[in-house]
Amino acid sequence: MSKAFQFLAKAAILTSVALSSNVATAAQDGRIKNVVLVHGAFADGSGWQAVTDRLTKDGFKVSIVQEPQTSLQDDIDATKRVLDQQDGPVVLVGHSYGGLVITDAGNDPKVKSLVYAAAFMPEAGDSLLSLVKTMPLPSEDIKATKDGYLYLDPAKFAQDFAADLPKKTAAFMAVSQVLPSQKAFSAPTTKAAWHDKPAFAIVSTKDKAINPQLERWMYKRGGAHVTEVNSSHAVYISNPRIVVDVIEKAARVSE
User: Fold this and answer.
1) How many angstroms separate the CA atoms of 37 and 86, rounded?
2) 182-226: per-residue pLDDT in tens?
3) What is the 3-state secondary structure (H, E, C) of the chain?
4) Distance between CA atoms of 229 and 243, rounded to whole angstroms?
5) Phi, psi of 206, rounded to the nearest 5 degrees
6) pTM of the prediction?
7) Per-residue pLDDT tens for 154-193?
8) How far is it, in rounded angstroms, from Cα 231 to Cα 239?
């Protein structure tokens, strides 16, 4: 065995041991150690990287759901698949449209607390469309394709979704956005998990995708513990430390 291969093998073993030790520490100090992250519309799971890096460093086991966004039920099912893989209690986190997904998927018994990051927090019977009709949208830049999918005008993406991100990052997100189906936005929530489980929420005060007043109203209605951040809609990317702080508070909820 070459010295280079021996070095790489030893490094891999040490990394594995360190990660296992961190997760064990999280469990021993009374925190929920599993965190499942759900992205919103017009984005994918890669935006959670900075949040994931911090949570992993702090001893959490992180999993990221990649929703197809073909329907609300498909996205709930995708989340349930990831929840099924967890080895214990979970903090379930959603951004934007992901809030609808976690509200329903959060009824899974493994989920012990919920985090809404600039996310919709629906009651049973609410859809995304019914909620946005209650208060004026900050912008009208969502367009529809001929076959019933939606996209955010790439020329307006940065100002609406990611105003406090580097221009290069926002530009890439604009051209790599995931298109949700219209029926995903019109589907109603069936059962709101926040009635039975603690909820934590983040208001992005400079949000141009969801009216911040709507965020405040939903979170108050749902009895969530609220943190306000001077941020764009992409709060999980621009302010990962604050988002991690809120997730870690949710992880301290007793089983």
Assistant:
1) 12
2) 999 999 999 999 999 999 999 999 999 999 999 999 999 999 999
3) CCHHHHHHHHHHHHHHHHHHHHHHHHHHCCCCCEEEEECCCCCCHHHHHHHHHHHHHCCCEEEEECCCCCCHHHHHHHHHHHHHCCCCCEEEEEECCHHHHHHHHCCCCCEEEEEEECCCCCCCCCCHHHHHCCCCCCCCCEEECCCCEEEECHHHHHHHHCCCCCHHHHHHHHHCCCCCEHHHHHCCCCCCHHHCCCEEEEEECCCCCCCHHHHHHHHHHCCCEEEEECCCCCHHHHCHHHHHHHHHHHCCCCC
4) 9
5) -110, 25
6) 0.88
7) 999 999 999 999 999 999 999 999 999 999 999 999 999 9
8) 7
Cα distances (angstroms) measured from residue 76 to each of 10, 35, 51, 59, 89: 40, 16, 22, 27, 18
For residues 228 and 49, give the distance between their C-alpha atoms in angstroms, rounded to a whole number: 22
- Domains, in order of start, for the chain: 31-250 (3.40.50.1820)
Which pair of tokens denotes residue 123?
């009651």
Backbone angles phi, psi at 190, to 5 degrees: -95, -45
- Say which residues have a Cβ less than 8 Å from residue 120's Cβ, sequence separation at least 6: 96, 97, 99, 100, 103, 128, 131, 210, 218
